[in-house]
Amino acid sequence: MFVLDTESIPWEPVTANTRTGKISRKFLRENELAEGIGYTTDLVYYHKSDEAFTAPRHRHDFAQFRVTLSGLTDYGFEQVAEGGDVTYFPAGAYYGPETIEEAEILLIQWSRGWVTREKSNRAFEELAKKGTFKDGYYHTTDTKGRPVRRDGNMAVWETVTGTPLTIPSPKYGQPIVMKTSGYDWSATESGLAVKDLGHFTDEDVNVQAVKWKPGQEIELGSERTTLVWVASGELSSEGQNLTARSVMFSDFGDTHTLTGVEDGEALLLRLPIVEPGA
């Protein structure tokens, strides 16, 4: 079990930014959700007006969840998430152009062969000596002096790995925005109230909102890694208390019980179930 009070972590500027705009970040965790499948988790704040974040239409080899905590996050083609909404980004699916300002998100990204933050930052610095990151692209010239433009994130990835980036065929055609306010609460036998926001792919990636009262319990199973975001109230587990804006990671292979201390709500982001040897 890994618990963090995100309020105790200072915001830091994102200096290795392949896109446009000013971004601040609280790094939460980088780990494996199963053998060979890495992930990274951050709180991200996008600044306003002339410092707004923009990115061209693009796609990735990794999947993502983004929880919009405040403001509006515009992912292009009328896919806009507001405070409390959760968006699932399938690996390989195009999205954008993005425009985001004065907004905060909880972000988790995962894939096989994940490139660590340390390696990514080192590659960014190396590339910046030879070319320019501008408007979401990496600009340089070829051996004949002709301009060459590549997606900024792709340029970093290929520098780290030394191989062309292979994008998987998407399992969905575009990101899926879950409008949490449109769901009704459903009672469970344990007394908890839940909103099942969505189940995705053959790996059963899923999201659930949970509401509890003191003494009620939330069980986290061993079949997957689960990220818990406490939106309000208080929970306890194994002598540790989770208050509003705390995160907890229940790792693959572990089981944990969360017990309500004060009335509250949380989001459970359940990452892929990966079969042994898959």
Question: Secondary-structure map with pairings?
Answer:
Layout: E1 2-5, E2 12-13, E3 23-34, E4 37-46, E5 53-55, E6 63-74, E7 80-82, E8 86-89, E9 98-112, H1 117-128, E10 132-134, E11 137-141, E12 147-151, H2 152-161, E13 176-178, E14 186-187, E15 193-200, E16 205-212, E17 217-220, E18 226-237, E19 240-243, E20 246-250, E21 256-270
Helix pairs in contact: 1-2
SS field, number of helical segments: 2
Q: End-to-end span in angstroms? A: 24 Å
- Mean pLDDT across all residues, rounded? 92
Q: Radius of gyration, rounded?
A: 19 Å
Structural class: mainly beta
CATH architecture of the domain at 181-270: Sandwich
Approximate strand percentage: over 45%
CATH superfamily of the domain at 181-270: Jelly Rolls
Task: Let me know the number of strands.
Answer: 21
CATH top level assignment of the domain at 181-270:
Mainly Beta
What form results from the Cα inertia axes? globular
CATH fold category name of the domain at 181-270: Jelly Rolls
Write the H/E string, N to C. Answer: EEEEEEEEEHEEEHEEEEEEEEE
| Low-confidence region ranges | none
Helix content: under 10%
**Most strands sheet:** 9 strands, antiparallel
